[in-house]
Structures are given as structure tokens and as C-alpha cells.
Predict the structure.
Amino acid sequence: MRLRRSTASGLRNVLLIFDALNAIERFQSFRARPTGDLSLRDEEGRISITPTSVRFIFGGDEGDTLRWVECAVEIDRDDHWARVMRFLHRYAAANGMEYRDSGTGASS
């Protein structure tokens, strides 16, 4: 995961990287148009965010093995950013990860 703030627009950007997706693992079709929302759930409830872009990264010998999926989200409101950050901190703690501010080297 990467967190950035655009110096030009002031928008905060979150890049989520997924190693697996349930839709792919269960062989669901991608022919139908997706709803476009990403649903995140934690003890505070549900967050529904709309990605600004989604990239499927393939590799392997034949180039047809899904390696990961990148989902970019732009967040413009301070209250939405605070809520997403609380979710990400909880997720990191529950999965043995930590957040580090690259500007200071300190983890928060």
C-alpha cells in the first residue's frame, strides 16, 4: 500500500495492492460491468470507496498468470481521509504490518 498527497491538487492518494481477489479465485466472470465500489469493513462499520483506477498485473511464463491488482483511490475530504487511515492502521495491526511516514522514517 502506498499513501501520497498530490502537491498540485492537494488530493490524497491511496494505492491498494491485492495479491488475490475472490472474484478471480471463484472463477466469476468479468463480462458484467462491476459496481465500481470497493467495500472495506471494520469495527466502525463499512466504508465504500470508488477507485479512480484499477490495474491487473500479469506475469508468468505465458504472461497469463495474475500477479496482483492495483487499486488507486483519491480522497479529497479530511473526514474521509481520517476514516480510511483508521481502517488502514487497524488492518495493518491485525496483519502484522506497520505504517511508516517516508518523510521522517518514523512509524505511526
User: Anything to note?
Assistant: The two ends are 15 Å apart (CA to CA).
